[in-house]
Structures are given as C-alpha cells and as structure tokens.
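To the wet lab folks,

You asked to see what we're planning to order before we commit. Fair enough. Below is the target structure as tokens, and below that is the sequence we designed to fit it. If anything looks off to you, flag it before the synthesis order goes out.
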C-alpha cells in the first residue's frame, strides 16, 4: 500500500482517486445519473481541498 501512496503522491490523493473511480463506475452501471456523479465529484474535491488546507495550516502553526 505504501507504493500506491507514493505513486499517487500521498494517502489523501490515493483515497480521492479511488473515490473518483468508484463514482465513475456507479455512473457507468446506471446506479447514478450525471448530476449524482457530479455531486460526488464535488464532495470528493471539497474534502480533498479542505484536508490539504488543514494540513498546511497545521504545518504552519507547528513551525512557530
């Protein structure tokens, strides 16, 4: 699993890519429509962006 994390650049990115693949599979299997797929992508990106923001703020506070 470490090699997979290194390939994608970290655990958050790996998890985001896996969720993207899962939502896309749901779209192709007709388990969701385009608006559901788009909403899933928005949530995936939002959680990824917030996680990165919190990580960088935490690293900035740690250096002081």
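Sequence we intend to order:
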């Amino acid at each position: 699993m470490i090699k997979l994390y290194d390939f994608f650049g970290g655990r958050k990115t790996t998890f985001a890519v896996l969720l993207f693949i899962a939502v896309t599979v749901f779209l192709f299997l007709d388990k969701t429509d385009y608006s559901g797929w788009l909403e899933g992508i928005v949530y995936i990106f939002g959680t990824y962006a917030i996680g990165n923001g919190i990580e960088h703020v935490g690293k900035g506070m740690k250096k002081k």
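Structural context that might help your review: The helical segments are 2-8, 11-28, 34-63. The mean pLDDT is 88.

Thanks,
Computational group
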